[in-house]
Design the sequence.
């Protein structure tokens, strides 16, 4: 199989999203958005065959969307509260400890923008692994402190006590610039990798708080020829 077209930034993002589900086992992958959805399907097609995929409504589905099982919303929530799910959500704002906001911009009592509302973010973050996909990395999104906490970050969970921290985990934040986690002593955001072509200066200037930087910052891994074939010709 010969693929001569260079890997695009979007394809690196798909690879990064797919890697978020590596070694997750038989759990429900709940991607929100086209790039995370393609990443989940790529993961199931290659290194994570036990993943379960859903249409988000009432069914478990195959890679091509064919219904394979029944998953009504009540059963879906049972999987959420039992931790058998890894969701990849979006974020209008996210801060250095992983607090996420999808509710409003500005003061709660008089916001300048009304957004989606907290929706399932608190339950997601306190019961099952929750990663984030952010298509446009900027200081408007990566902020020192979110205007309202929708998804619970590490500092907020710790302040709430053991009932909040017991199952709380934010594996990854993935943006169009790189991959980030919270594997630092104080659970502040750390660079895991930058997508090829992105510089450390670029990502720090697009972030509203200092990022933890390892001694060596790798690039997001290259897709294999088989993965590129799947992304470009099979799973689209």
Sequence:
């Amino acid at each position: 199989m010969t693929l001569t077209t260079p890997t695009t930034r979007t394809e690196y993002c798909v690879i990064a999203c797919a890697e978020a589900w590596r070694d997750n086992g038989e759990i429900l992958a709940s991607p929100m958005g086209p790039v995370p959805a393609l990443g989940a399907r790529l993961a199931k097609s290659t290194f994570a065959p036990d993943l379960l995929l859903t249409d988000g409504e009432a069914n478990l589905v195959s890679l091509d969307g064919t219904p394979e099982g029944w998953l009504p919303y009540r059963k879906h929530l049972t999987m959420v509260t039992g931790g058998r799910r890894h969701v990849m959500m979006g974020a209008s704002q996210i801060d250095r400890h992983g607090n996420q906001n999808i509710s409003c911009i500005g003061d709660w009592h008089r916001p300048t923008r009304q957004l989606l509302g907290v929706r399932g973010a608190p339950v997601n973050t306190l019961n099952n692994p929750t990663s984030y996909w952010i298509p446009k990395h900027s200081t408007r999104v990566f902020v020192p402190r979110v205007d309202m906490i929708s998804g619970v970050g590490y500092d907020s969970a710790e302040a709430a006590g053991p009932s909040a921290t017991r199952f709380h985990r934010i594996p990854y934040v993935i943006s169009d610039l790189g991959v980030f986690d919270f594997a630092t002593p104080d659970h502040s955001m750390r660079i895991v990798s930058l997508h090829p072509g992105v510089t450390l200066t670029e990502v720090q200037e697009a972030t509203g708080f200092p990022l933890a930087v390892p001694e060596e910052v790798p690039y997001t891994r290259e897709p294999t020829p088989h993965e590129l074939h799947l992304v470009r010709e099979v799973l689209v």
